[in-house]
Amino acid sequence: MTTEDLDAARLLLQRLGLRPEDLLSSTPGRGQPAPTFDDYIRQLQAAVPAGTLRAYGPYWRRIVQAWGDRRINTPSPLEVRELIEQTQRQAVVRRNSRGGRSAAEHMVGALRALYRQARADGFITTDTDPVAPIAKPRRLPSNRRALPDNLLKDINRIAATTGNDPDLDTLILRLHIETACRRAGALALRPMDLDPEQCLVHLHEKGGQDRWQPVSPTLMNALLRHCDRGAGDLGKTERLLRYKNGQPITGRRYDYLWNRIGKHLPWAATQQVTAHWLRHTTLTWVERHRGYAIARAFAGHTDMNGNVGATMTYVRASLHEVAEALSAMTGEPHPLAAKLGVENSEAA
């Protein structure tokens, strides 16, 4: 067979969307033409969880715009790099932008998710994965930081004295400050997630993780009163945080709240302060006053990786210790903190 014959065979295989190994394998997906990006991404979007779709959906749409009619096994690593660089250059410029690095990082993640599924379906192999040689851009340290007491008081003051529903906004802020929860955890809170007897709330956050988190008696009573919104017929499984008209709030309430705070406090607008800054503030206080193990438990971090060390396997903080930290932070007694005090005195 001549070089010209080999070149012709390679060209034919490329046009058919096949690789030489496809002719030797009977694995489902192999021996069949690979689907186009348009078709495959449409199927992928219907198969992934809502959180994954929110994160990668915009980038999958960008891939379809660039390569929609091409088969998924045809781009080269160089073309993948070009698409990532183009995504970074065209990223929307905001005040907190960092040169499009986040957009590039998300595009790499979206491509990896796509080709991970393509490998599982047998359309490509590890050796032919065009994303495999691409390294994810290194994530820069976050600009978020803990807020000092005077700035935190200013935020609470603006929330309590402006806007169309100060009671709702102050409840949202206190929930984030006391629990260090993420926004998704607050939005997912339901009446059935409240344990008034032990002053606990059941938080459901990213990655399907959930945890019981202590709250002060003051916050628990405020949450119970808030359940009366919705004409008093709020079901146990319905979302708890609601507008005055009984409709559940969405992420738009957070946008409205922080835009309003930014208008009254220019520094908050300049630094792009959000609810996640409250998480940093609380966890920093807990770490400084009660140590790393309790701060880690307070944050709901349960993953064990090489960054924390094997010692964390043996020094996990208990729920009672988290409650004691909350009690020290808020100045209010907590039922579980009181039990911890009894246990410690008995042990002594």
UniProtKB/TrEMBL annotation:
<dbReference type="InterPro" id="IPR013762">
    <property type="entry name" value="Integrase-like_cat_sf"/>
</dbReference>
<dbReference type="InterPro" id="IPR011010">
    <property type="entry name" value="DNA_brk_join_enz"/>
</dbReference>
<dbReference type="GO" id="GO:0003677">
    <property type="term" value="F:DNA binding"/>
</dbReference>
<dbReference type="GO" id="GO:0006310">
    <property type="term" value="P:DNA recombination"/>
</dbReference>
<dbReference type="InterPro" id="IPR002104">
    <property type="entry name" value="Integrase_catalytic"/>
</dbReference>
<dbReference type="Pfam" id="PF00589">
    <property type="entry name" value="Phage_integrase"/>
</dbReference>
<protein>
    <submittedName>
        <fullName>Tyrosine-type recombinase/integrase</fullName>
    </submittedName>
</protein>
<feature type="domain" description="Tyr recombinase">
    <location>
        <begin position="142"/>
        <end position="327"/>
    </location>
</feature>
<dbReference type="InterPro" id="IPR050090">
    <property type="entry name" value="Tyrosine_recombinase_XerCD"/>
</dbReference>
<keyword id="KW-0238">DNA-binding</keyword>
<keyword id="KW-0233">DNA recombination</keyword>
<dbReference type="InterPro" id="IPR010998">
    <property type="entry name" value="Integrase_recombinase_N"/>
</dbReference>
<comment type="similarity">
    <text>Belongs to the 'phage' integrase family.</text>
</comment>
<dbReference type="GO" id="GO:0015074">
    <property type="term" value="P:DNA integration"/>
</dbReference>
